[in-house]
Amino acid sequence: MRSTFDHSLSARVLAISGLAILALAAALPVSAQEIAHTQFFPILARTAGAGGTQWVTDMTVHNHSDNDLVVGVQFLEADKANVFNPSFPDRFPIGARETILIQDVLNELFGFETDIKGGMVVTVDPQLVPGSGNPVGSEIIATTRTYNTGDPAGTFGQTVPATGKVINAAPTKSVVTGVINSTRFRSNLGAMNMTFIDDLRIKIRVLNAAGEEVVPVKEKTLFPASVSQWSLQSLGVPKADGPLTIELWMHPDDVLADPCATNFPTMFIAYVSKVDGNPDGTGDAEFIYAAPNDPYDCLYEP
After folding, report:
1. Among 4, 43, 85, 143, which one has the highest count of C-beta atoms within 10 angstroms of its own C-beta?
2. Radius of gyration of the chain measured on its C-alpha atoms
3. Segments making up each domain of the chain, as ranges
4. Could you tell me the fold of the domain covering 174-296?
């Protein structure tokens, strides 16, 4: 699907290079909504949901520098093997000190009309946007809002900030708490394979308030450069009052001994989207990242 923005710059698909992968992964901001040259969002949506909800995503980008920049964007569709293109042919300009709000970004930037969801990479790195003229050291700040338009009383949504120290490339767990799967609230678990070139297997454990397994440990396979999302009900979690906590970790055979020593580390991001309404309720949603015990932070390795 072609972007409605400028395609006059390079449109050829390049093979994934180790340099591009390392530049992308190492450059991710270290906390939510931080200024950086590359921003990564694990989930955007233009799709109908449960309970009569209808979800769309807006994106806001701010150029805090005194230079005009060219922003490269890439959408990675959910539940399919994507080919990451390090030349970022989908682009749009942003002026010095300018802030741009792109409403319904999947339609406006990429032209999607039908139900679709996935992740997105946004960058002004001149290595990842060749021919852009962006100065070395260019940075932006960006954020997205995914919200329900299906309520006549108004929109209800969740901010999804760019990720940072939520990337897990280690044998240890990522943990997300504050999850509820009750008669009032429904929760969806999502995970993004940031390996970009291979499938990745992850293990999922759901714990109740007492720390007991609610269902047997699940194993899911994630396609390259793709996100998958599952309702807790589809994972076999029964409706019940009380908080839940979810642990996720890579299959031991997929873990690298030293992810910082390779151009293609195996790694993932996980999150939970919790919605008020099952099916009755406001449709208001909350986005929660899973926190890794050992975040991927090779940029700051000695």
Report:
1. 43
2. 19
3. 18-161, 174-296
4. Hypothetical Protein Tm1070; Chain: A (2.60.290)
Hey, is 298 helix, strand or coil?
A: helix
Does this model's pTM top 0.90? My answer is no
Q: Does the bond joining 279 to the residue before it have cis omega, within 30 degrees of 0? A: yes
CB 176 within 8 A of CB 295: no
Kindly report, residue by residue over 174-183, the tens digit of the pLDDT: 999 999 999 8
Task: Decide: helix, strand or coil at residue 81.
Answer: coil
Tens digits of per-residue pLDDT, 245-256? 999 999 999 999
| 292 touches 167 (CB < 8 A) | yes
Tokens of 243: 């908080």
The least confident of 13-17, 142-146, 159-163 is 13-17
Q: How many CB atoms lie within 10 A of CB 6?
A: 12
